[in-house]
Amino acid sequence: MDILLSFGLDKIGFILAAIAYLFFFGLLLTTKVSNLPKYLLLALSIASFCWAVYYSWSAALPFTTLSSHLIENSKNAMLLMFLLAALSPANNTVGKFFRRHHVYGLLIAICSWTFVSSSGLLSASNIFTGNLAICILQLALLEALYRRSGDAKWQYKPLVMALTITTLYDFALLAESALFGRIDDQIWFARGFVYGAMVPLMIIAVRRIQAWGINVYISRDIVLQSSLVLGAGVYLCLLAITGFYIRYFGGNWSNLIQATFILLGIATLIFLMLSGTLRRKLKVFIEKHFFANKFDYREKWLLLTRSLQKIDITQPEDHYKSLLVAWLNSIGYSRGAIIRFKASSIKTLALQQRPPLNNDERQIISAYRQSFGSRNWLLDLSDSSDSFVRQNVATKLLDIQLIIPIHTKGELWGLCLMNAPKVNKLSLNWELRDFLTIVSEQISSQLLLMQASQKLSENAQFIAFSRMSAFVVHDLKNVKAQIDLILKNAAKHRHNPEFIEDSFTTLAAMQQRLQNMLSQLTNKRPDQQTDSLISVGRLVQDVIENRCAVRKPVPVLHIEQDCTIFIDKDRFSSVLFHLIDNAQHATEADGEVTVTITEHANQLKLTIADTGCGMSDEFIQNRLFKAFDSTKGNAGMGIGAHDALHFVEQQGGQLSVKSVPDQGSTFTLLLPLKSSFSLAEPQEKNNTRNVI
């Protein structure tokens, strides 16, 4: 410590500042950019280095000798030039910058001031005051730079802070000196430390300021080695301090305990320094927290999301290739494939700028499946240090670099294979592995969604066909009821010409209805409705006589006020038959089924009342209108009431039910006579159809 004090604290500070500025100068030399800010930063760092070396070697105080005047004013001139360049347009060249009037005028003024101040014509206070004015000019330029940075204040803040602190320190030193006519030694001793401490802020600033294009490169290996050395130094210091206290408080056994502790501590340090696991973890920690990321994750994620949004999962022809392209673009690769495992086979789903898989590639994929089938492991086939690569790749002909697994329900579903030209290849380090893992999870979810969408689409088609078949079977029951009615009446009226004529008419209608049903099944879609203007009373009478008379009790029709409505006759007659037939099934043969037709508030009001078994409120709410839920056992399909409700709501009407158990039920249909779902009035004017 005595040696350090005799050498001088100010010398130590300037030596540290010189080392810091030399390091900063070396970092700037590693950049490939060539522009005005870089050149002036290099000049400023060289001037500051020379300034620090001068004061670490010379015992002279500032502004007391000719050499001190030259070194101080050179540093101040370089700082002023740099600040003026930072305030100038970004496309300035060195020649254009120094040809500006205010630039070379300022250089002439500083040179003149250096000559005058070093000539001995001015007193010490006047010299300090003149240099104080230079500090004020520097502070004004720093304030202008920060104010004009606008939205980029975050980029310029470290630079402005570092230069402002050093300038304010010089300002305080010169103000004190101008007042008393001499340099204060205590303030002077800290000058080198202050300048050296501000260099890290300047390094951060030049990395942040994008307008200058200066990307200072610091080797990750150098930072790792420096961190290990620094950590070892701190560890040894703590070891020494702990050993000192052990010896101080240890008593008779203090020397033995101290020696044993230090020996074990050094052994532990050597073990840790040689540990590959520790070095890897430290390197990953440094890269994560002290270096810029390889990707702009926000931009990459937005690009991936937009690419996935453009994929139409309902079009199975090309969505696998679109997904593969989005996957490749996420890391800037150009060639790849998506494959799927089915039992022991490999199925190629998409290829991008590469030929189909060859035998060598299939062998590698099979080996990967055996080794990593239960692990979500990303593999780089260009990594010769990987044991799998050494054992399996060898001399095989491969167009694969990265193998990315696709897992579902804990099983290996498939793989994404990627490759790129050598200049664009990325090494599979921790960052790329983490990024690809996240991207793969997102794309795998999209891929599985596509698979599920295809299955749902197929199932929906089967459900729609089954549903249509159920309605067709229900309509076949109606046709059968008409045949039963013809056969029942044939025994009595077979010789009646009118009966024979009506039978042929009914058979023709049945034939047309069967034709429509076959058309629906063949085309896999319901036939289009054909609306017509009908008399409701006549239609209900026809349904009762031709379709419902075969079962007792035979319905009784009351027409209080007949109505005409523009509607699909076949569908409406089927709905009426379903409701009346249900009422007949629910009523004993000696009971009553009554159908009443009237008009209410410009609406058709049709009620079907029976004196049957009735229904509970719970049954009406939960089961009555539920498709394929029947109380008739195998004799019913359970879609009559459901179809009736759906049809009435399509017409903009209402279907309500009132029922009391063991007393009967009443169904009420309300249909608008001028339905907004039909074009009754235009059709009446244009077609002048007859009332059926």
Automatic annotation (TrEMBL):
SMART domains: HATPase_c. SUPFAM superfamilies: ATPase domain of HSP90 chaperone/DNA topoisomerase II/histidine kinase (SSF55874). It is an enzyme of class 2 (transferase). The chain crosses the membrane at residues 12-30, 39-57, 77-94, 103-122, 128-146, 158-175, 187-206, 227-250, 256-278. The keyword Phosphoprotein applies. It catalyses: ATP + protein L-histidine = ADP + protein N-phospho-L-histidine. One of its GO terms (molecular function) is phosphorelay sensor kinase activity. Pfam families: HATPase_c. NCBIfam families: PEP_his_kin (TIGR02916). This is histidine kinase. It comes from Arsukibacterium tuosuense.
